[in-house]
Amino acid sequence: MAEYAYESHALPRSAPVGQGAPVLSGCFMRSLLSLSGLILASSVAVAAPAHKEASPHGTTFASRQTATEKQATGVYDLSVLPVFTGSVVQFLPAPHGGIVGFVLDDGTQVFVSPEQAHTFAGLIKVGDKVDIRGIKGQVLPIIRAFSVASPRGRTVQDSFIEMPLHSPEMIAGPDLVLHGEVWMPLYDAGGHLTGAVLKDHSVIYLSPREAARVSGLLKAGQTLYAVGGGSSGDLGIAIDAREIGPAADKLIGIAVGNVPPPGPAPGSPGYDLIPGADEH
After folding, report:
1. What is the DSSP letter of 229?
2. What is the pLDDT of residues 35-66, one digit of tens each?
3. Distance (Å, rounded) from C-alpha 251 to C-alpha 248?
4. Which of 72-81, 152-161, 187-196, 249-258 has the lowest mean pLDDT?
5. If phi over 0 gives left and psi between -120 and 50 gives alpha, with beta otherwise, what is residue 276?
6. What gap in Å lies between CA 73 and CA 181, rounded to an integer?
7. What is the pTM assigned to this prediction?
């Protein structure tokens, strides 16, 4: 039988037993190496995009952060809050010292947290035009500020740290007497009537319950006379009123703070009775 000749590009015939493994031609070896290189390059090309696509997913939060978020010192992003601008005409000093906020030139009362109030000294001055991020009252001229920026580029941001307020019992010193014309009723951050600001910038505080009881005295233009413990300093004068009235000889007693109304006097028949005890 005739034998068929193999050309150099074909597979060689098997060698007879005992003569060793078949020898591949040089052209065939180059084909195999080229094929291996192509497979390797293809697998690298397929894997590379998957690795590059993973990078944006790991940095999406940082890439979405605004400049305000990156520079903020607080926990929350306050850039979504509206900005209110105005000039400071006076601080709202607290009876125990420090401030609870300030008043703008349009009469808006701006309230800050106790934690913010401790950092206002030297940051904002009367006459400064400030930018305030916060929420505004729907009807009342009040703003709860969460961030206040001074014209000198410094900002106080609410860190939402709860700081205790001093109670009226911790106030020491003699009573202060305030009298004059009411400039505006005073509110708190919750929108409750809580006293009055006089035209001389002194501040009279009452509990919301007592302020509601004497609300007629707290209207703008009314002459007011008040006595109580408080503080006087560079930021202003403020008292917790114990007596209040339209004149020195027309004063009525005021319960300081949100304490319950006084009960029967010691030694009286009702002193030892607990209200509601006879109902059980």
Report:
1. E
2. 555 454 454 444 444 444 444 444 444 444 44
3. 6
4. 72-81
5. left
6. 42
7. 0.64
Distance between CA atoms of residues 125 and 151, nearest Å: 10
Residue-level pLDDT at 197: 98
State the DSSP string of 162-225: --PPPPGGG--S--EEEEEEEEEEEE-TTS-EEEEEETTS-EEE--HHHHHHTGGGGSTT-EEE
139 band by pLDDT with thresholds 50, 70 and 90: very high
Residue 192, token pair as written in the block: 């409750």
pLDDT of res. 166: 46
Question: In this structure, what token pair is assigned to residue 206?
Answer: 């009452």
Phi-psi region of 54 (alpha: psi -120 to 50; beta: other; left: phi over 0): alpha
Residues 116/148, Cβ–Cβ less than 8 Å: yes
CA distance 100 to 238: 11
- CA dist 101 and 156 (Å) reads 12
Paired tokens of 160: 């939402």
The amino acid sitting at 111 is F
